[in-house]
Amino acid sequence: MAKDHGPSVKDDTLYEDLRRDGASKEKAARIANAKAAGTIDHRATALEDRTKDDLMREAREIGIPGRSKMTKAELVKAIRKA
């Protein structure tokens, strides 16, 4: 049974799975909450399949510095590390 992580995490099981796989607390919470809210587009979840503009928006939301000068491949790598 998944531990209750409070009201800030909407899908505790997914959150724990992501943390176990090495995601940061912030990233795990963001993904778990997006999935619980139904805002994850399962057709374009692979970062490589997304447009550079989509990656730039996500990088901006995450707060990745230097994103405006990054290539698409660099954005994918930076988002994965965040």
Automatic annotation (TrEMBL):
Signal peptide: none annotated. Pfam families: DUF7218, Rho_N. SUPFAM superfamilies: Rho N-terminal domain-like. Residues 1-29 have a biased composition (Basic and acidic residues). Residues 47-82 form the Rho termination factor-like N-terminal domain. InterPro entries: DUF7218, Rho-like_N, Rho_N_sf. Residues 1-38 are annotated as: Disordered. This is Rho termination factor-like N-terminal domain-containing protein.
